[in-house]
Amino acid sequence: MNKTFDFYFDFISPYSFLAYKKLKLINKEKKIKINFKPMLLGGLHKLGGITAPAFNKLKLKNMKIDCELVAKKNNIEFYWNSKFPINSLYLMRGYLVVNDQIKKTYFDYCFDAYWKNNIDLSKKQNLEKVLEKTSLIKKDFFDNIENLKIKDDLKKLTSDAFKKDIFGAPTFVVNSKIFWGQDRLDYALEEYNS
């Protein structure tokens, strides 16, 4: 049986960033085939009637401290973005429009720009600078993220995640079992390796 390791993410999620960095370190030694599953976290929360921690002052304060603790413990370079939260719609659509050869680079640059370099990716000129590093043609990128098919694809991916009972990011699905949160990565890996 071919095992799958699905990683549901949104660039806006600091916990997705931390989980990805942990996975990247682990995957240097073990060859895990990761299926990256983009979804729009705001849309997912709307479908589930969930108020995100970013919009609760007490939770937000705790979330920032918690992310910094996780980053420090795992030796991950992390900087809480002063513009959190932003609308990640264009970033997530962007993941769908870049070709497979550039996806990993786009993934790394977007995550690092937002959660390591404190760049406000909701500003077009800042996103353009990230795109320059990936050798993407900016005009094509911005035209394509407005394409109706791409818009519909992201809506469908988000809706499909919700139908699988996914309600937050990151979420890992291994052997049809759901593991929510970066702190459940070890459990997902145990399932994958069992």
Structure description:
The protein is globular, with a radius of gyration of 16 Å. α2 (41-48) packs across α8 and α5 crosses α6 (124-134). The longest helix is centred in the middle third of the chain and has 17 residues, at 57-73. A 4-stranded mixed sheet has the order 2-1-3-4, sandwiched between helices. The N and C termini lie close together (12 Å). The chain has a single domain (5-193), classed as Glutaredoxin (3-Layer(aba) Sandwich). It contains 9 helices and 4 strands. It is 55% helix and 9% strand. It has 194 residues and is an alpha+beta fold.
Quick structural overview:
The protein has 194 residues and is an alpha+beta fold.
The residue fraction in helices comes out at 40-55%
CATH evolutionary superfamily: Glutaredoxin
How many structural domains can be distinguished in the coordinates? 1
* Major sheet details: 4 strands, mixed
